[in-house]
Amino acid sequence: MRGYVIKRVAQAIGVLWAAYTVSFLVLDFLPGDPVSAMAGAGADTGQVDPAQLAALRHQYGFDKPILVQYADYLGKAVRGDFGDAVSTGRPVTSTLADALPQTLQLTGAALLLAVLLGGGLAVLATYTSQRWLRQLLLSLPPLGVSVPTFWTGLLLVETFSFRLHWFPAFGNDGIRGLVLPAVTLAIPTGAQVAQVLAKSLLTALDQAYVETARAKGAGRWRVHLRHALRNASLPALTVVGLLVGQLIAGSVVVETVFSRDGLGRVTAAAVTAQDIPLVQGVVVFGALIFVVTNLVVDLVYPLLDPRIVVASGRKAGLA
């Protein structure tokens, strides 16, 4: 178990480093000059005193070779220092600290709804003995995945805000203001959970151990939940861990549609301004949330199936 945990933690650190490095290189290759944009010169640097531009580039380290910049930024990032945002001059950590709680609230609520709705739909679809109802329920997840998130958000706003006046259309107005954005994010996520879990449940229900449980007199509900669902939940659990990254990315669209303050809007503004320190801070925090969630999923695996640790140990021994 100890070696399993160490291996997963090392993989998580590798993902964080890769996310930081890729974001740094992508931003460096983008056209434009963040210092000129900060000085209000746009593409025409002749409108600003060259000495002022040189001072700003020196302040943010943009006058150094690319490898030196990378080493400096990475060294500071390891210590939790992402510098100051080029576009606002505020510390990156302060900017993220202000925006992150709203995004975590939104993605957390959306993930909870996705698991409950997707899991409930999969269990109901595979439990019912009515063929027509099963086919109807199993046809809903592909529809939920295919519908664009922004279209779902606009439809919910039109229906439940402008027509029924049940929820506010825009802003961060407490729990009521969280409902529509969370549902918008949860629909495609829950649909993917339902697809994977339903397929795994149907496969598990055909296994020999399920037939053995039935032969011993276990009822349908007990067989479905205690025997089949436990084994079928592993693929769905993997999907949930991966979908955390999708939820964070989807928050950019949802927070724009619902005019919510959060990490998504900060990211959009930072990319537009080519604000390298702020974008890298966003990427690292987003990747940190992603890897921590997947690390938790990896550590839960052995609790559901102890054979995973045994198999991992055998592979390490063979290596």
TrEMBL record:
It comes from the Bacteria. The chain crosses the membrane at residues 12-30, 104-124, 136-157, 177-198, 234-258, 278-304. It is a multi-pass membrane protein. Keywords: Cell membrane, Membrane, Transmembrane, Transmembrane helix, Transport. Residues 100-301 form the ABC transmembrane type-1 domain. It is found in: Cell membrane. Pfam families: BPD_transp_1 (PF00528), BPD_transp_1_N (PF19300). Belongs to the binding-protein-dependent transport system permease family. This is Peptide/nickel transport system permease protein. It comes from Streptomyces pseudovenezuelae.
